[in-house]
From TrEMBL:
Keyword annotations from UniProtKB, A to Z: 2Fe-2S, Iron, Iron-sulfur, Metal-binding, Oxidoreductase
The UniProt record lists the keyword Ribonucleoprotein: no
Domain of life of the native organism: Bacteria
Annotated protein name in UniProt: Carbon-monoxide dehydrogenase small subunit
UniProt domain 2Fe-2S ferredoxin-type: residue ranges: 2-78
Zinc is among the record's keywords: no
GO molecular function: 2 iron, 2 sulfur cluster binding; metal ion binding; oxidoreductase activity
């Protein structure tokens, strides 16, 4: 067992992990942050996307030990300080960018990373960026609309 320490959603945390403990397991099982989902265990679906030192990372592809000392943001850390939804979360709600909700945390985290890199992406850029996130319910149309809205570009009425 090895001691790891990191900052998760602005709070210093630490815990004991085995060498094979994935970051997603540490977040969910040790810290109780179950908003980060495990969908495939093979890094194909993107439900486990979080931010590590400001970059979108599939947390099933990194060991907890590798994140020692890192700044981590999970979906639980995306809300505004007063607990209200962030602009991205609100856009997903307003534009029906979710159905069952299983992929939503990873989609929101990916959207936040995209908008940090490219504040006004095109629809094609959004679709390309989300290519590592799978959704079985929505067909992506409303997810793309939500990200366009969150970027401040507006969305055409349908």
């Amino acid at each position: 067992m090895t001691e790891v320490s990191m900052t998760v959603n602005g709070k210093a945390v630490s815990g004991q992990v085995e060498g094979r403990t994935l970051l997603v397991q540490f977040l969910r099982e040790t810290l109780g942050l179950t908003g980060t989902h495990v969908g495939c265990d093979t890094s194909q679906c993107g439900t486990c996307v979080i931010h590590v030192n400001g970059k979108a990372v599939k947390s099933c592809t990194i060991f907890a030990q590798e994140a020692d000392g890192a700044q981590i943001t999970t979906i639980e850390g995306m809300a505004n300080p007063d607990g209200s939804l962030s602009p991205i979360q609100k856009a997903f709600q307003d534009y029906h960018g979710l159905q069952c909700g299983f992929c939503t945390p990873g989609m929101v985290m990916s959207a936040a990373a995209l908008l940090a890199e490219n504040p006004t992406p095109t629809e094609a850029e959004i679709r390309a960026y989300l290519s590592g996130n799978l959704c079985r319910c929505t067909g992506y149309h409303n997810i793309v609309r939500a990200i366009l809205a969150a970027s401040g570009q507006g969305v055409a009425a349908e």
